[in-house]
């Protein structure tokens, strides 16, 4: 993760200069921004705009190889995190594109700012295949309503 400073010192840009991370704001509260990106979720302090914590989540090598064999670009064959839903103060659901094989994970809070994976399942119908596609969701108690692109290009 990099911060770029522009000629105006009050303007910051989050990201890096060499790749397309397809950043997506997933959650915002009084103190933190949770941002989904390529192979990672960033927890950013609103006050200092610095990384407090991150959850790294790259696609498995076998999934990336399959994505590349289908003719997708190397840049597209990553896990772009697109969905984050808080179950409660102790757990979160995160879903990503997973190199065109959408996947979700549930994480439980282990310490103040650390989470451990407790569950993994298919994200089909929850997260998009392609990082260029949008998705939306609504959490209502134990139910998650999602809207995303289901048709994938091969």
UniProtKB/TrEMBL annotation:
GO terms for cellular component: plasma membrane. Signal peptide: none annotated. Transmembrane segments: none annotated. Residues 1-154 form the Sema domain. GO terms for biological process: axon guidance; positive regulation of cell migration; semaphorin-plexin signaling pathway. InterPro entries: Semap_dom, Semap_dom_sf, Semaphorin, WD40/YVTN_repeat-like_dom_sf. One of its GO terms (molecular function) is semaphorin receptor binding. This is Sema domain-containing protein.
């Amino acid at each position: 993760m990099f911060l770029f400073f522009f000629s105006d010192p009050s303007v910051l840009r989050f990201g890096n200069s060499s790749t397309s991370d397809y950043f997506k704001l997933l959650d915002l509260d009084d103190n933190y921004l949770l941002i989904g990106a390529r192979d990672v979720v960033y927890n950013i302090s609103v006050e200092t705009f610095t990384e407090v914590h991150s959850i790294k989540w790259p696609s498995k090598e076998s999934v990336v190889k399959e994505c590349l064999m289908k003719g997708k670009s190397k840049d597209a064959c990553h896990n772009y995190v697109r969905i984050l839903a808080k179950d409660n103060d102790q757990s979160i659901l995160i879903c990503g594109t997973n190199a065109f094989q959408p996947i979700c994970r549930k994480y439980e809070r282990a310490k103040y700012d650390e989470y451990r994976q407790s569950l993994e399942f298919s994200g089909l119908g929850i997260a998009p295949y392609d990082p260029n596609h949008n998705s939306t969701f609504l959490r209502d108690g134990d139910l998650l309503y999602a809207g995303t692109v289901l048709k994938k290009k091969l």
